[in-house]
Write a structure and sequence with these properties.
Blueprint: E1 2-6, H1 11-22, E2 26-31, E3 43-47, H2 55-61, E4 66-69, H3 82-105, E5 112-118, E6 129-130, H4 140-150, E7 161-167, E8 169-171, H5 178-186, E9 199-200, E10 202-204, H6 205-217, E11 223-227, E12 233-234, H7 235-245, H8 256-263, H9 268-271, E13 275-276, H10 279-283, H11 293-300
Parallel strand pairs: 1-2, 1-4, 2-3, 4-5, 5-7, 6-13, 7-11, 8-10
Antiparallel strand pairs: 9-12
Length: 301
């Protein structure tokens, strides 16, 4: 199988590429700096700018069995100025539009396309259970997610099987949000953020990669899938499990006002959330290796 990954140098893309290469598949990354990108053995890189279809990679694109679009500016970089928020949105929308344009021009077309999105689509939801059938929210994350997904919607009309991955919090020790959340715990100051009641919908990076490959290989997979473990937890329970896994005390809450003062709107990453259920993924037959947050954090730490 030949797989092309846009935005493949990040946490998820690297983990997916490693899994594919290990099983003998061929992987190409689309990278803004292919000569500077540290590549895994067996992975090739092609240059793109995330805004333009280059003939240098379009020919290779046409040979792919699967294309995965993970491209987008990181949301974890502080501060969130208006310019930064615009970059977060524009980078996702434009990369999606480039993918759509590439599919339109390609001959033949890759038969499978996976598009990243996020559970921020649903907005803050309190303690209600959220599935793929739940309505969209009305905050910044919702705006990003709906525009991100809409940018590649036209691909559905091209005879391509398009899958939307609404990613939960991907837990990995080497990157993502987890190291930032673990820092106060490591400093013996771990505790809940704000009220601690907000939901955290998480997934072990191991299961995230397995889920992506399941969706790639299952011909029935089409449309929106929540990629999160079936047992979301409160922020308080998450931080308690993290402290236990790291053998640190759990005691000091971080007040919401302090996080808002320090991080501004970016504090919503820590103070709001959803209890998301991967209903369609489970219904299709996917079985998680990590369903317990404590088992997951113990494995990672």
């Amino acid at each position: 199988m030949k797989v092309m990954i846009a935005g493949g140098s990040g946490l998820i893309g690297t983990a997916l590429a490693r899994s594919l290469v290990r099983d003998g598949h061929e992987v190409w990354l689309l990278s803004r700096s292919p000569h500077k990108t540290r590549l895994l053995p067996g992975v090739q890189a092609l240059e793109w700018d995330g805004r333009t279809v280059f003939h240098q990679w379009l020919g290779t694109f046409s040979q792919m069995d699967v294309v995965v679009n993970l491209a987008g500016a990181t949301i974890g970089q502080w501060p969130w100025s208006e310019a930064r928020k615009k970059e977060i949105l524009d980078s996702r929308v434009r990369s999606g539009q480039v993918m759509a344009e590439a599919f339109e021009k390609a001959s033949p077309r890759p038969p499978v396309f996976l598009q990243a999105s996020g559970i921020g689509y649903y907005g803050p939801r309190g303690t209600e259970a959220v599935t793929e059938d739940s309505s969209i929210g009305n905050d910044f994350f919702s705006t990003v997610a709906i525009n991100w997904e809409s940018a590649t919607r036209i691909i559905d009309t091209m005879g391509v099987r398009r899958v939307i991955m609404r990613n939960g919090l991907v837990l990995a020790r080497e990157g993502g949000v987890l190291p930032m959340m673990a820092l106060p715990v490591a400093l013996f100051a771990g505790g809940p953020f704000g009220s601690g009641r907000q939901g955290i919908s998480w997934i072990h990076v191991h299961d995230h990669v397995r889920a992506m490959r399941f969706l790639i290989e299952n011909d029935k997979a089409r449309g929106v899938f929540n990629l999160s473990a079936p047992n979301p937890v409160s922020n308080a329970d998450f931080m308690r499990a993290l402290a236990r896994a790291m053998r640190r005390p759990y005691w000091f809450p971080t007040p919401a006002f302090a996080l808002r003062l320090l991080l501004g709107e970016m504090s919503d990453l820590l103070l709001t959330g959803q209890y998301v259920i991967p209903q369609r993924l489970v219904n299709l037959g996917f079985a998680f290796d990590f369903e317990s947050i404590y088992d997951t954090l113990t494995d990672l730490y």
